[in-house]
Amino acid sequence: MLDKTDPMTADAATAAADRTAAARRTRRTRLLTWLAIAVVAAGVLYGVWTFVFGGKTVSTDNAYVGADVAPVTPLVSGPVARVLVKETEVVQPGQPLVLLDDADARIAVAQAEAALGQAERKVRGYVANDAALAGQVGARDADVAKARADLERAKTDLDRREALSSSGAVSGDELTNAKNRYAEAQAALAQAAAAKRAAQGNRQANAVLIEGVDVAQNPEVAAARARLAAAQLALDRTVIRAPVAGEISKKTVEPGQQVQTGTPIMQVVPTADAFVDANFKEVQLDHVRPGQPVTLTSDLYGRGVKFHGKVRGLTGGTGSAFSLIPAQNASGNWIKVVQRVPVRIDLDPKELREHPLRVGLSMKATVDVSNAR
């Protein structure tokens, strides 16, 4: 059994404790040294990175997906017969979406077709009347020639009787009768000439209706054909079609509903042509130019999926300038606020097909501005 009061035992324990403390101080010094080296290395690396890459990109997380959404609006009013699509369905340009009741439109087309037929027959009647009126003008020419001959004969007879009346060879009654026949011949010639002018006027008036064009190009026929085209167009518009390719959203129409012209009934969102509006601070835009490459990430897919695009351009004003109630900086107390300018970014269509985006999703955009320096 050891004696705890032995001086040699106490000295050995003290020496062991001293060695342990020294080892701990050595490890602490070594750790602090390596930590200092790591801090210095990190500072050097950061300085190198800042010198090489710093200032060559600008980033913002104030960015959102957008698209040129196409509202679907009826061009004619009427009751809905059928709705052919559902919410979120993908449609192609020209695909029928809604069918309206077309009974009234079909009746209007039938009436317009009948009116066109009547107009064509009426114009053909004008052409036929021209020949008839030409015959009437010829007949009136003959009447004028006969009346002129009768007048000349009456004038000759009157001159003869007037020459014989002084010798008493012609009675007063015969002279009076000759004068009356001459007057009647004058009246008949005047009447025939008036009838000829009337016939010529009728033919000229009829010629105006057909002059210079055939039946198909006649104004009356053309107007009737235009009314038929308008009726046919209204009939065609009872089939409401997709204006662009995309997905159906905000559908508010159901069978039996009465829709009005110009009232939106759904929207087609062209997700394949989506873009991003990134709202950069005004102090970040010094070197942003159209065509610069952009790297984007979406909160929907996380940082593992990167989208690539190009700057299309900057809008003509800040977001506050185009807000519903613009800032009134010229009145009251004014506090300067850093403004943001929307930057439109076009995305890679292939990447959009692989990872579809939806309008309004949050994005983070980083623009490479190195080529602008």
**What is the fold named in CATH at topology level of the largest domain?**
Methane Monooxygenase Hydroxylase, Chain G, domain 1
Report the structural category.
alpha+beta
Work out the count of structural domains. Answer: 3
Low-confidence sequence ranges: none
Number of helical stretches of at least 4 residues = 5
Beginning-to-end CA distance, first to last residue: 85 Å
Instruction: Write out the strand line-up for the largest beta sheet, numbering strands in chain order.
Output: 1-10-13-12-11-14
Helix content: 40-55%
Q: Biggest sheet, in brief?
A: 6 strands, antiparallel, barrel
The Cα radius of gyration reads 51 Å
CATH architectural grouping of the largest domain = Up-down Bundle
Mean pLDDT: 84
What is the top-level CATH class of the largest domain? Answer: Mainly Alpha
Structure, explained:
The chain is α+β, with helices and mostly antiparallel strands. The protein has 3 domains: 57-68 and 270-372, Efflux pump adaptor protein, beta barrel domain (Elongation Factor Tu (Ef-tu), domain 3, Beta Barrel), CATH 2.40.30; 70-101 and 238-263, OB fold (Dihydrolipoamide Acetyltransferase, E2P) (Beta Barrel), CATH 2.40.50; 104-234, Methane Monooxygenase Hydroxylase, Chain G, domain 1 (Up-down Bundle), CATH 1.20.58. It is built from 5 helices and 14 strands. The strands form 3 sheets. The protein has a 6-stranded antiparallel barrel with strand order 1-10-13-12-11-14. Strands 2-9-7-4 form a 4-stranded antiparallel sheet, with no helix packed on it. A 4-stranded antiparallel sheet has the order 6-5-3-8, with no helix packed on it. Helix 2 (103-165) runs antiparallel to helix 4 (219-236). It is rod-shaped.
